[in-house]
Amino acid sequence: MADQRNIVLFSDFLSLNELNIYHSSKKELGFVTCRLFGGYEAAERQMIAFIPDALSYDIGTDPESLPYGWEYPFSCIRILPLHEKYADKLTHRDFLGAILHIGIERSKIGDILLTEDGTYVFCHNTMTELLCQELTHIKHTSVYAQCTGLKDFSWHPSYETIHGTVASLRLDSLLSLAFNSSRSSLTSLVENGSVYVNGRLTTSNGYKLKENDIISVRGYGKFKYCQTLSETRKGRLSVELQRYK
Predict the structure, then answer these.
(1) pLDDT tens, 130-161?
(2) How far apart are CA 53 and CA 35, in angstroms?
(3) Which residues neighbour 170 within 8 Å (Cβ) at sequence distance 6 or greater?
């Protein structure tokens, strides 16, 4: 449709599984330019902008760069408790459950970020007003939601830096280091389709990671392989990881 109409069209927010389908189909989409963006660098749930060749000359190299006059159709919503003193300690699941309870589909919601400055939710523009009006309680906590401009939003993930040695840069070796578990206990995660590298499903434990690869593991979390620091006398590699909190 983007190609035929010469307009920019957008997907909903895509899950890791859906993003994997996109990555697997990139060769078939060579007739349009695709841009992925989820509101901030390293967002897990992202939208795809499909840009026809007729407009592709008018874009930059940044993932959020679109032709003049176009922008991603989502907003950043900040959620705060009405009374901080009486607020429960809420989790990602609590926020997501409350949002879905008011009738918003999961595909219309991007990442949910819990920060010291409040909780930020990326929401499709068609659902922004509904979310701001109807989201008044999460569990026993009274809250209010307000729209924050994407240009005003700035967030950098907090992470724990991990140093250690591994036999090689195989995926299973770095998983073991990142989550402090044995390789044998984690191999099934890869084989069962629970591990994504840069948004792509990876089912081989022997997959060789490259610097700055981001690995997401269902039920465990996410980490980045930063760099190899040195090689020990016994041939093991000293590496640096960042595990997101």
Answers:
(1) 999 999 999 999 999 999 877 777 777 788 99
(2) 13
(3) 205, 206, 207, 208, 209
